[in-house]
Each structure stands twice: as C-alpha cells, then as structure tokens.
C-alpha cells in the first residue's frame, strides 16, 4: 500500500499548491484608467494659402501677372491669350507638365498613406501591450498612478494622450525598481482592432480580484474603505515589502498606423519602448488602457503570483 499512499500524498500536494496559487493570484486588486474608441479615423487636407502679388496674403486672385487683372484663365491657359503658334504649343506643354506633376504627387501621397497604414477605407491599426514588473518598494509609482487616475480627463483624445505620457514618465522615473518586462505589437485592420484590444484588456482585468480604482471614459469609481477592508481580509495582504514582492503595470495602446516596439530583453530596451509609447501623438492615439496591480497600499504580488499570472515577462 505504500506506493498508493505516496501517490495520494503527491496528488494532494499538487492540488494544494494549485489552489494556493489560484488564491494568491486573486488576492490583489487593481487600478485602471483609459478610454477611447476605434472609430474610423479621418484625415483632412487644407490647401496652403498663397501670396498674390498686389492682393495681400490669401486675398484671392484679383490681380495677376497680366495688366488689368485676370489671373484665372490667362494663367491656366495662356495659349488662349498668346494666340497659337509656337508660343501656344509651349504653353500647352507647360500646362500638361504641371498637371502631370500634380497627379503624380497625389498618387505618391496616397501610396505613402497606404504604406504607413493611413488608408481611410480600412487603415492599419497597431495594438501594443507593454508590461513592467517592479519591486514593491516602488510605492511612489503606485501613488503617481493613483493621482493620475483621480484627476485625468479620459473622455478626450488630448486627455488620453496626457495619461499615456504621464504614465510612461512615471515608469521612466523608477528604473532602479525594474525587474520584469515584456512587449508585444500586433498589426491589424480597423475592423478587427477593437476585438483584439478588448481581448487583451479582458485578459488583464481578469487577473484582478477587483478594480479598486477606475477612471474609464471619465467615469471615476473608487472602492469604499469598508470594501477595501473586506478585500484585504480575504487575500494575502502584505504590510511590508519583501524581496519577492512586486507591482505590475500594463499599458495597452491602440494607434493608427504602424507602431514599432523593441523586444524587451534589457533595461535599455524597456527604456526605449516606454519612450516610443509615450511619444505617440494625439492624432494617432485611438484607445488606451493603463492597468496596475496591486492598487491599494500595502497589497503586493508575490513572486509566485507573477510567475503564474505573467509567464511571458522576462528579467531585465
């Protein structure tokens, strides 16, 4: 019977460890801020204003190169005013050359837009995820993210751009606490981008026991003190920072066009990735989610939590 006893003990140990990891993985609550949508972006072109001799800046074409006005047809079709012959043929050739130049410039602009993912029909969208695992001593970062979430305007593109810049800046200010990191970028079309973004978002949110602070589309929600106390009693709450305790921050970004992020294998790679994300302009940013866990002070992730919940992170 001894082999059976040993087998049963081994199975019991595996089950106990599995449930222990599951409980630990659900112990920490998280914070969340962001918003945006994947509406079809539009690009507008404004014709540059021109100087007209004698007519001021942008004052129209009341005066031209011909005495007495008339800067319209004589300019576009000078052969009408010159009157046939070699002069008229030369004018026609000039007009055709200018027209060909304009057509080629337009086609080249459209081609450049398509190659960069700016085609207005179904443009290329980049869905990027950057995660950073920091030592739990980085409590200042936790406070910074809480402050940003409580004051941010997440209902506008300008506000979301500011959130992205402030969040990446907060991470860049604490390189001494960086331990783990990972990045992914997926290129997709607009019609499939929202599904991909939401899939990644739900995966990250499911790792929280609850969202104790949230500011999404300018809807600020914060758990009450009593709810936090109940959550803390049910989880493995640590009041002191130990060597195996961490904070994990996740940045999800949806941008128009192609976004390149380096594969993070070192702190230098992580610094470059944060700088590139923070530099995304407001006219390209479509959607943003910043998530961090734990959010409540005193709550931490253990080393086992990080291994189980974030297996793709690498040491930096």
Automatic annotation (TrEMBL):
Transmembrane domains' residue ranges: 75-103
Indicate yes or no for the key word Transmembrane.
yes
Tell me if rRNA-binding is a UniProt keyword of this record: no
Q: Which domain of life is it from?
A: Bacteria
Keyword list, A-Z = Membrane, Signal, Transmembrane, Transmembrane helix
Signal peptide as annotated in the record? 1-27
The protein in question is named DUF1517 domain-containing protein
The protein's organism comes out as: Stenomitos frigidus AS-A4
């Amino acid at each position: 019977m001894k082999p059976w006893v040993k087998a049963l003990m081994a199975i019991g140990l595996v089950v106990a460890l599995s449930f222990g990891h599951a409980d630990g993985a659900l112990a920490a609550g998280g914070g969340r801020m962001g918003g945006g949508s994947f509406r079809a972006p539009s690009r507008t072109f404004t014709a540059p204003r021109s100087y007209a001799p004698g007519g001021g800046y942008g004052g129209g074409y009341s005066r031209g190169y011909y005495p007495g006005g008339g800067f319209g047809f004589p300019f576009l079709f000078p052969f009408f005013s010159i009157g046939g012959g070699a002069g008229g043929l030369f004018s026609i050739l000039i007009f055709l050359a200018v027209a060909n130049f304009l057509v080629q410039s337009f086609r080249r602009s459209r081609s450049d837009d398509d190659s960069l993912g700016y085609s207005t029909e179904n443009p290329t969208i980049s869905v990027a995820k950057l995660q950073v695992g920091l030592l739990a001593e980085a409590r200042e970062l936790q406070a910074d993210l809480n402050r940003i979430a409580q004051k941010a305007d997440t209902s506008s593109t300008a506000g979301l751009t500011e959130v992205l810049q402030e969040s990446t800046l907060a991470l860049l200010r604490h390189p001494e606490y960086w331990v783990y990191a990972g990045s992914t970028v997926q290129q997709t079309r607009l019609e499939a981008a929202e599904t991909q973004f939401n899939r990644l978002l739900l995966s990250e949110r499911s790792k929280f026991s609850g969202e104790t602070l949230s500011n999404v589309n300018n809807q600020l929600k914060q758990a009450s003190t009593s709810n936090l106390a109940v959550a803390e009693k049910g989880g493995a709450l640590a009041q002191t920072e130990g060597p195996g305790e961490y904070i994990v921050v996740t940045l999800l970004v949806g941008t128009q066009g192609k976004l390149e992020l380096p594969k993070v294998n070192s702190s230098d790679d992580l610094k470059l990735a944060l700088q590139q994300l923070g530099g995304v302009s407001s006219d390209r940013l479509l959607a943003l989610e910043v998530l961090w866990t734990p959010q409540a002070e005193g709550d931490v992730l253990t080393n086992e939590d990080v291994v189980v919940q974030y297996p793709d992170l690498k040491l930096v």
